[in-house]
Amino acid sequence: MSDKTLYLSDLDGTLLQNDASLSPFAVRELNRMIEKGLCFSISSARSTGTVIGILDGLRLTVPIALFNGVIYYDYSAARFVRVMDIDPQAARQVARVMEQYDLHNTMYTYQDQQLFACYTSLDTERERQFAAERSRFPQKKWRQVDSLAKTAENERVVFFSMPGPKEKMDCLYAEMEKIPNITLSYYLDTYEPLWYLEIQAGGVDKRLSVEILREMAGADHVVAFGDNHNDLAMADGADQFCAVRNATADVLAHADQIVPTNTEDGVIRYLLELEAKGGW
Predict the structure, then answer these.
(1) How far is the C-alpha of 102 from the C-alpha of 265, rounded, in Å?
(2) How far apart are alpha carbons 135 and 147 in whole angstroms?
(3) Would you give the DSSP letter of residue 15?
(4) In contact, 148 and 107? CB cutoff 8 Å
(5) Exposed, middle or buried: residue 257 (CB in 10 Å: 0-12, 13-18, 19+)?
(6) Burial class (CB in 10 A: 0-12, 13-18, 19+), 188
(7) pLDDT in tens, 88-139
(8) How many CB atoms lie within 10 A of CB 28?
């Protein structure tokens, strides 16, 4: 019996076009290859709030990893299959630091197959638009609360996401580094000149998503694809790591192979080349 390989791709800047969409070519070819036996999945920093729409029409057979390995979601069954909580004490500390820095969003909690995006206020047009665009799907509900710290005392906190200018975020990152039992992801956004600080449970990152999805898929090997700093954890966990040519310099330096850019559907073309050589 031949070994089974899972092909695991990041979304933004990797599998998606620059407008955060899957090209019709990518949808058509991925569905065709999956039907022929390709084992394919996603590991993204996104949540169900946007991924549901982005992946519409894609017939995935393996669960996907979201929030950098925090959430495992069966796309075909529309069901969360695994969620990694942040240590309650650490979650409360993070929420308190956010309030000290006058950051009002976003803390994510989970209960009974429902993800909640908690905020105390949405102060800018960008924040209001961000929430509105991500409120169309029932798998994530936006919820205003009086206090993030008090909410963290009573609910299962799974993820924090905070965008901002680099100077402010550098200071915030240094403060959050002092908190034990959390994992930090800090990187420049693909679409806007903003830096994102994302926080999940200690030991949880895209490297863990490689191992969990390897097990869920029953795969012997994993080939991963990425473009940004948070994808380096996948490079550490995968048997082979491919960077799209538009990736950041540090990601390109860690790549075993470089494939065409995201706008050229580099991941798809790599898979098509393997198919032409005899399969995956």
Answers:
(1) 40
(2) 21
(3) I
(4) yes
(5) exposed
(6) middle
(7) 999 999 999 999 999 999 999 999 999 999 999 998 898 888 888 777 777 7
(8) 13
